[in-house]
Sequence to fold (489 residues):
Amino acid sequence: MAATEQEILEGLGKIINEITGIPASDVTPEKNFVDDLDIDSLSMVEIAVAAQDEFGVEIPDDQLKNLKTVKDVLTFIQN
Amino acid sequence: MSANRVRVVVTGLGATTPVGGDVTSTWSALLAGQSGVESITADWIDTVPVKFAGTAAVDPTEVLARPEARRLDRSEQLAMVAAREAWQDAGAPEVAPERLGVVVSSGIGGITTTLSAYDTYKERGWNRLSPFTVPMLMPNGPAAWIGLDRGAQAGVHATVSACASGAEAIGYAMDMIRSGRADVVIAGGTEAAIHGLNVAAFAAARAMSTRNDDPAGASRPWDRDRDGFVLGEGAGIIVLESEEYARARGARIYAYASGVGYSADSHHITQPEPEGRGISMAMTQALNDAGITGQDVKHVNAHATSTPAGDVIEVQAVAKAIGTHPLVTSTKSMTGHLLGGAGGIESVFTIKALQERIVPATINLDNLDDGIEVDLVYGENRPLPEGDLAAVNNSFGFGGHNVAVVFKGA
Fold:
């Protein structure tokens, strides 16, 4: 049973809060990781590693660089 | 020494140790004769012959924000806590970045990260490693993170000489200021090595106490029944400045960092040289560097780790190089041995002793060993005399590294 978009968003918010300290409530679909959340590339790797464990989805490096917004990650995990 | 040489002063102190999470609580505990050594529970404890250690009294992950703590090895966490305390204590000087340096060392580096990352790599694959694994395990990591935290650009260094690392860092920092490379340097040592492999390896070297039925009594320098050192963890960091810079900004001055002496035994990779020639040489050079004589030295914070081989050789060398008159103590009787952190915390203790004119007593010294002529402080704390004060902090490391640092009262 796949997680709903809302469940993924909540899980992602917790991960991002744990790694960066950004409040989970600030992690909303339209946010850009670099421009809006000030998350650097190594933090994105940390988030990807944690998201792979949480959601059981591999995120290859060549895909990771295309995931610019929270919505991009939600879509990637759902698909 | 030249009359117009730059003089170095100490303006800030920071420490997190097995007996306290900051300088104030640590120093109070030392004056109260409290041991920070306790039995520990860990999943590896049944695999090693030593069942106790001096764990940091305040877990650094309770002090640092979680996102920061998860990127730092425990040795880096402890160093960051102590460095921030020292910086605030110094009044957070508004020094130009290119005039600020950092020299912070550990003996072993991020060993718990190295071991846990190896487990992750073997069991789950390379792509499950944190991207911060390398900066967590590299031995220059504590210095680098503190340098980033403060924006230091004059040079960020990590001197490595096993259990002399922290003292060597302070000596290097003094030289940075005296040679004109920096006005302010954050310096000291850190260690977080309470792990089964380290305990097993030191036990294999027959270096550790196995007094499992009495952990608080296990670190007993100069006692006849001492049977090895006790592993502790923590960090001690001081802020050093040129006297001119400190006075111009109106800083409170704790002490002068007046001299440093180095030597190498070239005798054995782990055993102390029986005549103490190397450690005498380090102390003599430190006194010469400070422009003082042995008579000026009123206190020695000894390296004395509670090993059968080392403790007496050291104080016999003190008697030769300085004299039998200084009040000598081993605070390791309470904190255990912080390895690369030792020179950091014990410099803090030496400076506090000068400031408050009191020497904390060595605990657990029930039956004095033979061959000791120096004036050991045990049983009760003792005051330092009126007038000018100088003190020596000794640190020696596996490999035969010897470092002595001289501090003078402000």
Observations:
- Chain B has two domains: 9-248, 260-409.
- Chain B has a mean pLDDT of 97.
